[in-house]
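#onboarding

Welcome to the new folks! Below is a worked example of what a typical request in this channel looks like: someone posts a single protein sequence, and someone else replies with the predicted structure as tokens. Don't worry about understanding the tokens yet, we'll cover that in week two.

Example request:
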Amino acid sequence: MAGVHRFPAKSGAESGIQGKEVHLSRERLYFFLKVGVTVVVLVWLITIIDLKEVWQLLSQVKWGYFLGAAGVLIAINIVLAARWKVLLDVGENNLSWFKLLQLYLVGGFFNSFLPTGLGGDVMRIWLSGNANKNHTGAFAAVFVERLLGMGGTVGIVLIGGWMYLGSVNGYDLRAIIVGIGAAILLSLMSILHPGLYNKITNLLAKIHLFRLGELLSKVFSALHSYRFSMWRLGVGFILSFMVQFLFVVLHFFIGEALTGIDKLTVQPYFLISPMIGLGNFLPSVGGYGIREGSYVLLLSIFGISKDLGFSYAVLADILIFLFVSIGGIVFVLLRKNEDLPSVPKKKHRFLSATI
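Example response:
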């Protein structure tokens, strides 16, 4: 038609290049967002505390309790590796518990030290998937791990609420806790039912907005793969609850190591510990900034000063730094002995969006 200018159609190569550029720009944007959040929160904390007071508090640390906290952190990772093996053994798993413990430490190193889109879970999926030649099974195990971990966290939060609230407006919290537990159990049983699973996946396949249907289908598939090994989910939940309880003990020991916070009993940590864990879902570099701010705010609820709360955060960071450094050493040794595949490239990092 005269007067109408037609632009040449873009080739597939050009479209692919533009798609990669958009992906990279989003990745960079998210990276700068995490760095920005970490920097802003840390600067804010420094402006509201007395660094001299913090240094004085840290110079009086009771190292016996600090070493006790380190021992608890080791126990937590041992239990986490055991949970991972229980879930991974639903398929053909060639990795021993000790090897999985090593990969957990490596994942912790990547999670804490590298400000990239490559998280610890993605590393564990990649490495265990390569070893077993089954990335789908590796994804399912890690995803179910996360779900069971959330269940354990909810359990600890409910116990903490029970301790402090007892009853709300005349309603006994024990009944609420039992009701929530029953609802979770019934929901899990429904998801594992073959007939309902097929109907739900067919329905999700029709959802194309933001790949929501695809991602939710992976959620249901990951759960449904355990329908013939229900005991694994039960053991996994018990181990998840044990991990969350150990985190409560860990935070209690850190508090006991500092004069002033040692006046707190163990009960407040049933609320503080899981709240700190939930803060990890917020964008930041290795949790830094968010974690310290969360400690200061949560401890202030129980009458702890900002200086003392920040001292607690620094002591926790020192413990985490020392422990995840072990993961870095393990990573170097495994790479040196050629027992570890190469780090996944950016094109494989789409897994992080499904965790």
